[in-house]
Amino acid sequence: MKWVVRGSGGAHEVTVERSPDGFEVSLDGHRHGVDLIRLNGAVASLRFVEDGRSFHVSYDRGRNHDWRIGVGDREFTFEVLSPVEAIGAVASAQAAARAS
């Protein structure tokens, strides 16, 4: 699946595919092997296959396309859109800017 993820750091193209070892995640063209184990409710263990780094991650889906992700004591909010939704959001924002 392909998505456009927008947060305070800008917009990024993200692709997620299943692999024999878990998932292949591509972020702006950079591929990473990821192992994800759901632990309890909205908490998961996320491990990068290449270097073995591991994180406990909490996640919560908000209204519309918003997701809140917690990693350690840091929290991030993202808007996750399909490519078609992202094109529509950009077009709407451009139309609103022209109207004002």
Q: Give the N-terminus to C-terminus distance in angstroms.
A: 36 Å
Question: What fold name goes in the CATH topology slot?
Answer: Glycoprotein, Type 4 Pilin
Radius of gyration over all CA atoms, rounded: 16 Å
Largest sheet: 8 strands, antiparallel, barrel
Domains, number: 1
CATH architecture: 2-Layer Sandwich
- What proportion of the residues form beta strands (DSSP E)? over 45%
Rounded mean pLDDT is 88
Number of helices: 1
* CATH class value: Alpha Beta
Derived structural class? alpha+beta
**Net shape:** globular
Helix content: 10-25%
Question: Which regions have little confidence, pLDDT < 50, spanning 5+ residues?
Answer: none
Order of helices and strands: EEEEEEEEH
Overall strand count: 8
How are strands sequenced across the largest beta sheet? Answer: 1-2-3-4-5-6-7-8
Give an overview of the whole structure.
The chain is of the alpha+beta class. It has one domain: Glycoprotein, Type 4 Pilin. The chain contains one helix and eight strands, in the order ββββββββα. The chain has one helix at residues 83-99, and strands at residues 2-7, 10-19, 22-27, 30-40, 43-48, 54-61, 66-71, 74-81. The protein has an eight-stranded antiparallel β-barrel with strand order 1-2-3-4-5-6-7-8. The protein is globular. The protein starts with a strand and ends with a helix. The mean pLDDT is 88.
